[in-house]
From TrEMBL:
Entry protein name: Sucrose-phosphate synthase
Origin organism lineage: Eukaryota, Viridiplantae, Streptophyta, Embryophyta, Tracheophyta
EC number of the protein: 2.4.1.14
Domain Glycosyl transferase family: 470-644
Limits of the Sucrose phosphatase-like domain: 781-992
Transferase among keywords: yes
Source organism: Raphanus sativus
Residues covered by region (Disordered): 110-134, 668-692
Major enzyme class: transferase
CDD domains (UniProt xref): HAD_SPS (cd16419)
């Protein structure tokens, strides 16, 4: 039945809605032929047409029965029956598969918790075994929040914030974002999230202690959209200028900053933004660096003011915020808004699309991985409701509510968590603006006139609604929801129609969106609306139920006022409500509520205490709750008063107060060389990194072995004591020496041009990041690249960086075997990005010196010994399951490991689980790290979560001001599992054709999403060149060479 797309929608509605409207006609069986008595015509007339109002189905059925041929008519109808049965079967198969998946996931979670417990050296306390006191209050409905005086509390808090100069960065990438006249609903990407982030930025910019707020988004200069979306900067005007701080400065306030990335002159949906995230990260990093310096000059005493937090909204911005957090070493916050795993499950349950089709359409697996990375990095995850935590975030590998409470209990007791980390889930409901709202205190008896304003007229929408009522003075039960089966409007109408006392006392107003004609509505919406109309007719509710065809967004406040004026009730009977913003809006106008007990309304009711919660499936419970509120005037008045008294807790100032209180409790994180630079002498004023510490104040002058200072077993077997003592001593020595307190050390006679690493003085940087099978091929390719720019290398305009999975001692052997000099390179990114070395400027320091501050930059959430034990246990399990004759497939390579890289040697790569499985196992156990399969799958490097080869390049930009746009990265056609990160961003890339590892394709086919979801194949920053071609031609195409 090609072309009948409506069939799927009505079949899905039939199976999802449940029993037909008329229970007398209900038949439980969907079998095609039940003991030979089945007749298609009777089935569709009684079961479908009579039970469900589906216009398109009725037309199709009418056409079928009008067919002259009896056989053809029955064939058509029977085919439709088969479609129903087939969809039911598909859903059953999905439910069975989903049950198996959930059972497997439950076992994985339980195994992970057991292993975490075994790793802990002491028994859990009582607080760790169950919910904390604060957690119990979030689950039970009996606990009430303490009443507080909003004005007094806010004033005390504001006085405490005086003197703070916070810089906050919010990120929301998709949709069209501007401060005024937002085009909400223009497309699926420009919706509630756009309004939320703009209002949040505006509100934060007006809060005491906040100096500047930047809302970063995409710059869109397309003829398809308004020119305002192409403006680089837009200031957000505060709503309430009276509350602005007196300490406003030149760059203070809230701004929308639009970063250009992705296709120029083209507005694209969010699903197509993923390959361009790295480009945004580089552009945003440049802006933040510049703004931090500007703010430092204005209010920071010359020292940069780094963001107190970077807040990502949705998966794409969360992925970007995680990379920015790592590049700048500042805290990160995440708000998911809508979660990928939850959407994937809902789409699979519908049965229309396979998982592959869903991924192709929505890029869902790339989205989920972005959310998992954001959870790995976030200090805090903000949610609107407890339901979002319990039912949505718990679907992720990186978050386990039970384990999170246990780890939090240990932290409070100052007990080691053995390298485990879990972000704090914080429920902060969205804010609202209440300044313009004036609750109505009058009655319907006052509607005929207004003594104070005799000439004022009632809003037109009032007349549009009241024309439906035969007695418009009765209290009005108001429901404001689109005609969707999930909103459960039909159950509300049934409850109203079957409760005579309720019908006698109240009217019912159903505001179900806008419509011109029922035939023009979607099949699902028209089905719901037709059901409502039939119920109105069935219960003879004419004169008691209103269902206007049109209303404007600006009419909504007046609708709330009308309901409050009539002493009515607002109801949300949805089967499940993720948050319930309309409940807050109604409470602000003085309306008590009756709401579903599933989802966000539970949290809202706990705070407002302004109504009753009901089971949306229980029709009698719903009518009893409505009758109780309408009939009992004292209860109505109490609920109204409670709502108005507590509504301030949903205001923007209250939201921002909670938000900022959480942020200021974070452990400060920012580039370490900035905090140590008390008396540093800055030089080279023409450099973009004037404020950065010169090389003599860096740990570059510390003598380290080629093994990175971790060659003995003792330093690896002790998680905190020896490594931390060693680190503290080194930090103290470096700081004292940099301040001239270490007279025994001779500074040498470096010229001005030698006071910074050579990499900082280059005009262009070439990064060699080739992942070959063998050392011989790598050497040959490296020589070709060096020879291609011999002229520029000789005059010092081009510098080289070697980026590899090797350890520094292996690099020494590699260079020696090929006759290369360490001084041919300015820097070495080692161990897949966990270590950074520079070429030594002094013979007494050896050929290499380590950048110690890079370690402090990437060590965030490094698992240490707890991670090491878990990895060894994993390797043992792999050896037991897949080895033959006691062969060791995976073993810890002690001699190749360092303080920030645990390296495992792999003898049989095909026998080792894919990288995503190991990453999943570690996330389930709350271990945050970056797993890299390298060297043809024969080596596994496990490094800090914020470390990688591409993040090391971003560090060079932050530390030394190296222009990423003047950096070119040489890669092969494939490589290690971190290969994807080397091809995106502002830097240029040369893909050498024919260069790859033989097993790299197998490594990358194990990813959960295609490479095209990460890399833009149409980028002008990427060129392809055969290895045997003239590499200079490729560099000319990238405009890095002119001759």
């Amino acid at each position: 039945m090609a072309g009948n797309d409506w069939v799927n929608s009505y079949l899905e509605a039939i199976l999802d809605v449940g029993q037909p409207l008329d229970d007398a006609h209900a038949r439980p069986s969907l079998l095609l032929r039940e003991r030979g008595r089945f007749t298609p015509s009777r089935y569709f007339v009684e079961e479908v047409i009579t039970g469900y109002d589906e216009t398109d189905l009725h037309k199709s059925w009418a056409k079928a029965v009008a067919t002259r041929s009896t056989q053809e008519r029955n064939t058509r109808l029977e085919n439709m029956c088969w479609r129903i049965w087939n969809l039911a079967r598909q859903k059953k198969q999905h439910e069975e598969k989903e049950a198996k998946r959930l059972a497997k996931r439950r076992l994985e979670r339980e195994r992970g918790r057991r292993e975490v417990t075994d790793d802990m050296s002491e028994e859990f306390s009582e607080g760790e075994k169950g919910d904390m006191v604060s957690d119990v209050s979030t689950h039970g409905a009996k606990t009430r929040l303490a009443r507080i005086n909003s004005a007094e509390s806010m004033e005390i808090w504001a006085n405490q914030q005086k003197g703070n100069k916070l810089y906050l960065v919010l990120i929301s990438l998709h949709g069209l974002i501007r401060g005024e006249n937002m085009e909400l609903g223009r497309d699926s990407d420009t919706g509630g999230q756009v309004k939320y982030v703009v209002e949040l930025a505006r509100a934060l910019g007006s809060m005491p202690g906040v100096y500047r707020v930047d809302l970063l988004t995409r710059q869109v200069s397309s003829p398809d959209v308004d020119y305002s979306y192409g403006e680089p900067t837009e200031m957000l005007t505060p709503r309430d200028s009276e509350n602005l701080s007196d300490e406003m400065g030149e760059s203070s306030g809230a701004y929308i900053v639009r970063i250009p990335f992705g296709p120029k002159d083209k507005y694209i949906p969010k699903e197509l933004l993923w390959p361009h995230i790295a480009e945004f990260v580089d552009g945003a990093m440049s802006h933040i660096m510049q703004m931090s310096s500007v703010l430092g000059e204005q209010v920071g005493g010359g020292k940069p003011i780094w963001p107190s937090a970077i807040h990502g909204h949705y998966a794409d911005a969360g992925d970007a915020a995680a990379l920015l957090s790592g590049a700048l070493n500042v805290p990160m916050i995440l708000t998911g808004h809508s979660l990928g795993r939850d959407k994937l499950e809902q789409l699979l349950k519908q049965g229309r699309l396979s998982k592959e089709e869903i991924n192709s359409t929505y890029k869902i697996m790339r989205r989920i991985e972005g959310e998992e990375l954001a959870v790995d990095v976030s200090e805090m995850v903000i949610t609107s409701t407890r339901q979002e935590i319990d039912e949505q975030w718990r679907l992720y590998d990186g978050f386990d509510p039970i384990l999170e409470r246990k780890l939090r209990a240990r932290i409070k007791r100052n007990v080691s968590c053995y390298g485990r980390f879990m972000p704090r889930m914080v429920k902060i409901p969205p804010g609202m603006e209440f300044n313009h709202i004036v609750p109505h205190d009058g009655d319907m008896e006052d509607a005929d006139g207004n003594d104070e304003h005799p000439t004022s007229r009632d809003p037109p929408i009032w007349a549009e609604i009241m024309r439906f009522f035969s007695n418009s003075r009765k209290p009005m039960i108001l429901a404001l929801a689109r005609p969707d089966p999930k909103k459960n409007i039909t159950t509300l109408v049934k409850a109203f129609g079957e409760c005579r006392p309720l019908r006698e006392l109240a009217n019912l107003a159903l505001i179900m969106g806008n419509r011109d004609g029922i035939d023009e509505m979607s099949s699902t919406s028209s089905s719901v609306l037709l059901s409502v109309l039939k119920l109105v007719d069935k219960y003879d509710l004419y004169g008691q139920v209103a269902y206007p065809k049109h209303h404007k967004q600006s009419d909504v406040p007046d609708i709330y006022r009308l309901a409050a004026k009539s002493k009515g009730v607002f109801i949300n009977p949805a089967f499940i409500e993720p948050f319930g913003l309309t409940l807050i809006e109604a409470a602000a106008y003085g309306l008590p509520m009756v709401a579903t007990q599933n989802g966000g309304p539970v949290d809202i009711h706990r705070i407002l205490d302004n109504g009753l919660l009901v089971d949306p499936h229980d029709q009698q419970s719903l009518s009893e709750a409505l009758l109780k509120l309408v009939a009992d005037k004292q209860l109505w008045a109490k609920c109204r008063q409670n709502g108005l008294k507590n509504i301030h807790q949903f205001s923007w100032p209250e939201h921002c107060k909670t938000y900022l209180s959480r942020i200021t409790s974070f452990k400060p994180r920012h580039p370490q060389w900035q905090s140590d630079d008390d008396d540093g002498d800055n030089s080279e004023p023409e450099s973009p990194s004037d404020s950065l510490r010169d090389i003599q104040d860096l740990s570059l002058n510390l003598r380290f072995s080629f093994d990175g200072g971790s060659g003995n077993d003792g330093s690896m077997n002790q998680e905190g004591s020896s490594s931390m003592d060693r680190k503290s001593k080194i930090e103290a020595a470096v700081l004292n020496w940099s301040k001239g307190k270490d007279s025994s050390r001779k500074m040498g006679s470096l010229e001005r041009s030698e006071k910074f690493p050579a990499v900082r003085r280059r005009k262009y940087i070439a990064v060699i990041a080739l992942d070959f099978d063998g050392e011989k091929d790598t050497l040959a390719a490296t020589r070709r690249i060096l020879e291609a720019v011999e002229k520029e290398r000789a005059d010092g305009s081009v510098g080289f960086i070697l980026s590899t999975s090797l350890k520094i001692s292996e690099i020494t052997s590699f260079l020696a075997s090929g006759g290369l000099n360490p001084n041919d390179f300015d820097a070495f990114v080692c161990n897949s990005g966990s270590d950074l070395y520079y070429t030594s400027l002094s013979s007494e320091d050896g050929p290499f010196v380590v950048d110690f501050y890079y370690h402090s930059h990437v060590e965030y959430r490094w698992g240490g010994e707890g991670l090491r034990k878990t990895l060894i246990r994993w390797a043992s399990s792999v050896n037991e399951k897949r080895a033959e004759n006691d062969e060791q497939i995976v073993t810890l390579a002690e001699h190749l490991s360092t303080d920030y890289c645990y390296t495992f040697a792999v003898k049989k790569p095909a026998a080792v689980p894919p990288v995503r499985e190991l990453r999943k196992l570690l996330r389930i156990q709350a271990l945050r790290c970056h797993v890299v399969y390298s060297q043809n799958g024969t080596r596994i490097n496990v490094i800090p979560v914020l470390a990688s080869r591409v993040q090391a390049l971003r560090y060079l930009f932050v530390r030394w001001g190296i222009d990423l746009a003047k950096m070119v990265v040489f890669v092969g056609e494939s490589g290690d599992t971190d290969y994807e990160g080397l091809l995106g961003g502002l830097h240029k890339s040369v893909v050498l054709e024919g260069v790859s590892c033989s097993a790299s394709n197998a490594l990358h086919t194990n990813r959960s999403y295609p490479l095209t979801d990460v890399i833009s194949l149409e980028s002008n920053n990427v060129v392809h060149a055969p290895l045997d071609s003239d590499i200079r031609d490729a560099l000319k195409k990238l405009e890095l060479l002119n001759d």
